[in-house]
Each structure stands twice: as structure tokens, then as C-alpha cells.
Amino acid sequence: MAEASIAARNDPWKVLEFYSGIGGMRYSLMKSGVNAEVVEAFEINDKANDVYQHNFGHRPYQGNIQSLTAVDLDSYGADAWLLSPPCQPYTRQGLQKDAGDARAFSFLQILELMQFILHPPSMLFVENVVGFETSETHARMIEILEETNFITQEFILSPLQFGIPYSRPRYFCLAKRRPSSFINKDLNGLLIQSPRPLFEHVDKVTNEDDLSQKDWEKSLLSCQPIEQFLELKNPNNDSAADSASFVTHLPEHSIRNLGENDVHEYDGEVLDRASLDQYSVPLSLIERWGSAMGILVLMSLSQHLKFTIYVKGTGSLLATVEPKKKDKSSLKEQRLRYFTPREVANLHSLPEEFEFPQHISLRQRYALLGNSLSIAVVAALLQYLFADHF
Ligand SMILES: C[S@@+](CC[C@H](N)C(=O)[O-])C[C@H]1O[C@@H](n2cnc3c(N)ncnc32)[C@H](O)[C@@H]1O
């Protein structure tokens, strides 16, 4: 951790959590050790709110963030706003309509309100997909933050850089209102691709701090092995190392693209070996991919990591058997399976006590987890944001 301590205050910082989903920001705040209290969360999706309420004992304000007024926002007297707005306006799947996408309106709307708030927050944290940093919405966000006296530092970071065998680079904007400032003042206004400034004093980031392909492979080697994140071990081979793989992508929106019958409903919390079957990828699906083999990327990594499978558009799959030949013909042999929701939660660094209420279906669990974020990454960024450096 950077040498400056997290701001010592008697009263906890008051925080608003926008687009709260299943509470990834709140879990990150708890993990960060910052003395903070979420005074309200805002989320339109009732299933996400069921999960949030189940775990935190508080139901977020269920409504459209776009309908909040400056008076509403002022009434909380919040010190910090944490926002993870929808990412579809900036993704290829979401057609990249950017600020013209209705799903971007609520975010732009509350940013615009910042100018009319009597007591604006002194800190702001935004999470989104890579690609957001070149969007019109981003340009407007930076403009508003400058007009309202904020300084910013932006990051693109992946859990892989924090010892988690999971590649999911995400964009983050950290903003502090003057006279507050960041520990590493020289990085103001920069987009940084290294976690180094979060843990030590740096005057500048060099190109070497940005990860090259070689460095990514090196970070992979220093990651915890994937089997530490699995609840279902490979029944064919108890030596977990033999099933080692790493995750390049999680079932974000993708699981929802699968046919209804391709995902079996999950009807309980108790998992045993027989449960593995419900996560195996049906042969019919593998056969159907035959014509779409072009979208499969099978890549060899080190001896330690064995191999990786990345199936575009269908989320991540775990190969539970290493093929003799690493080519597309070996797909059936690899006994592909989906990650279970608990495994996805583990890769997001959600705590052990996090759980879904029984009535949330398997499909909904994947969708909600796919929308969430890496607690390991966000906690470190929040520690840096809240560290006191007036
Ligand atoms: C990227 S997800 C954020 C997930 C969250 N950080 C988590 O850990 O689960 C965006 C969330 O914003 C919600 N949302 C989208 N538009 C909204 C709006 N106008 N008002 C309130 N919530 C909205 C979606 O339902 C979704 O849960």
C-alpha cells in the first residue's frame, strides 16, 4: 500500500453506490478497509436488489437513476460517489451507440447534475469497459469534472495484475475535488495501465509499466493457480494441476446468448460430484460450434499453465482434460464445462459469505455476476482514492 495512510476520520465517509447490482462496489469498499458507510445504493433491477438485500440486509432504492434530482442527491450529503454504469453503450455487442444509447442517459444526467449540487462529493469513482475512455460520454465526463474542480487519474487494470488468474481489463476513473489530491500527484490527467502507483510513490509511469504480451505471460506465472478458485474438481484426475487453465473471459452477457436448453437450471446450493454434469458443455453444442471454429482461440502457455480456451461469444469454459493434440479436433476430448456461479464469484474475489437467494435462477446468477466487478482490483483503487493527501 502507498505510504500515506487511509484518511483517519472519526466519522465514516458517506458513500453513494450507483448501479449497485449485487454490491461489488460495497464489497470492494469493505475489503479496502476504508472507514466508509454506504448511505444509499441505487439499482433498477429487482433481482439484483434481491441479492443485495439478501447479503447486506438493505434493499437499494429501486428506480431509474435518471429520475434523481440535484435536491435528492444533495440530501445524502455524500463524500463519495461510486458508479458502475451500464457498459453496453461502449461495447461491440452493444453496438457502440455511446452517448446516443438510452442506457448512457442516466449516467450523463447525474454527471450534469453535479454542477447544480450545493455540496458535491469530494471523491468519485467510475468503472466501465475498456473502450469507454475513447467515448463521447467519457469526453463529457472529463469536461464536467474539470468544470466542477475535480482532478482525475485513470487506470486500465486487470485482476491478472493482482495475482488472480483471470484476464478482465477494465477502465477506472478516480476523481478528487480540489483541494484534495492524489498521493502520486504527477500522474494527474494520465491513463495508467500499471497497478504500481497504487502501492508506491512514483513520479511518472513509463512505457515499461504498461504490460507487454511477455509481461502478461509473466504475471500469469505469478498468479494463484486456477484450482484454488474451483469448487468442482476434475473427477478424472485429482491432481488439480493437470486441469490447470486460466480464464480469459467470463460469461458476461454471453451465457444469455445460449439457447434456453443449453444451460441447465441450478436447483440447490449443495454441490457434489454429480453436480459437475450440469455444468458440462453438451456435445450438441460442441458439434454446433464446428462451423464456427474460427472463433476459437486455443493457445499454449507455459508448462505450469498448460493451456487456455477462449470461446468468443459464449463465455469462458474450463477444459478439464488436457488434450493430447492442441487443435480444434480435440474439443470433445477436453470435457469442457462452464464455471459454476461460485467459481465466477471466487474469480471476482467476492467473499465466501456472499450467496444468492434460492429463487435466483442459474441464468440470472451468471448474468448478475457477469455485470459485477473484480473486488481485488477495485479495493486497491479505492484505498488509493481515499488515502488522505490534502
Ligand atoms: C455494470 S452493472 C453494475 C454492477 C455492479 N457494480 C455489481 O457489482 O453488481 C450496471 C447496473 O446498472 C443497472 N442500471 C442500468 N441502468 C440503470 C438506471 N437507469 N437506473 C438504475 N439502475 C440502472 C443495471 O440493472 C445493472 O445492474
TrEMBL record:
Domain of life, per UniProt, equals: Eukaryota
* GO CC, any one term: nucleus
Q: Which UniProt keywords apply?
A: Membrane, Methyltransferase, S-adenosyl-L-methionine, Transferase, Transmembrane, Transmembrane helix
Q: Could you cite one Gene Ontology molecular function of this protein?
A: methyltransferase activity
Q: Which GO terms describe its biological process?
A: methylation
Q: Which Pfam families match?
A: DNA_methylase
| Signal peptide bounds | none
Membrane-traversing stretches? 366-386
Q: Record keywords: RNA-binding included?
A: no
Active-site residues, as the UniProt record annotates them: 87
Keyword Transmembrane: yes or no? yes
NCBIfam families recorded: dcm
What family does this belong to? Answer: Belongs to the class I-like SAM-binding methyltransferase superfamily. C5-methyltransferase family.
This one is known as tRNA (Cytosine(38)-C(5))-methyltransferase 2 isoform X1
What is the source species? Answer: Senna tora
Q: What is the lineage of its organism?
A: Eukaryota, Viridiplantae, Streptophyta, Embryophyta, Tracheophyta
